[in-house]
Each structure stands twice: as C-alpha cells, then as structure tokens.
Design brief:
Blueprint lengths: L1 H20 L24 E5 L5 E3 L2 E3 L1 H14 L6 E6 L5 H13 L3 E4 L4
Length: about 120
C-alpha cells in the first residue's frame, strides 16, 4: 500500500509542475466602457461595426467575414504613410467572439485596430 501512495504522490508532483509550464492560449479581452473624451482624426478612419446578430458592417455596408478580410487586406496594402488604422465599434450586445474575429483579422493583416464602444 505504501508503494501505491508513493506513486500517487509522484504523479501529483509531476502534474503540478507541468501544469504551471503550460500557458493558456487566451486573449485577455475587456469590452470598452464609456468615455467623455472626444478624439479628432486628421482623416476619415474606416470603421468595422458588429451588431448583436453577428453581422459585420464595413463603413456602414453589410458584409461577410471573407469579404471584409479581403477588403481590409486591399486597404492595408494601399496604405503608404505607415500602418493602416481602423476602428472596431461593436454594439453593446455584440458577442465577444465576433469582436475577437475582427481583432484576429487585424492582427494577421498587421492593422492597428482601435476598439471603440461608441462613435
């Protein structure tokens, strides 16, 4: 019986040590709140908005995820004055997964995405 408890304790120590090495592959995302600050831009920034049903809108025009990614890729390639910037403005009841989808597109295309709660 004592040899069985030794094996159990060794397994417990092994799993405790290896579990601290594994880092979770997660995004620490907090939805934005309200602010009274006004921000002015020197040029028109493209806007991607998301509604509660998971529909994506690029500058007010409804689009699908594949078409949106293609349009963002074209705009990012055309940007000559540095990095392409866009705003991501989800509705208050939009799903977090949809916001993360847009943020993932921006990361893959090397786009600066500004997460905004309201216009």
């Amino acid at each position: 019986m004592s040899s069985l408890t030794d094996i159990i304790f060794l397994l417990l120590i092994f799993f405790m040590l290896t579990s601290s090495v594994v880092a979770p592959n997660a995004l620490n995302l907090k939805m934005p709140g309200k602010s009274n600050k006004t921000v002015t831009a020197d040029r028109q920034t493209d806007d991607v908005s998301i509604d509660s049903r998971g529909n994506f809108y690029f500058n007010g025009v409804k689009t699908g995820p594949q078409n949106l990614e293609a349009e963002l890729r074209k705009k990012a390639r055309r940007e000559r004055s540095g990095k392409y910037k866009m705003t991501i403005s989800p509705k208050s009841d939009a799903k977090t997964e949809d916001v993360v989808t847009i943020m993932d597109m921006a990361m893959r295309l090397n786009i600066d995405g500004i997460l905004a709660a309201e216009k």
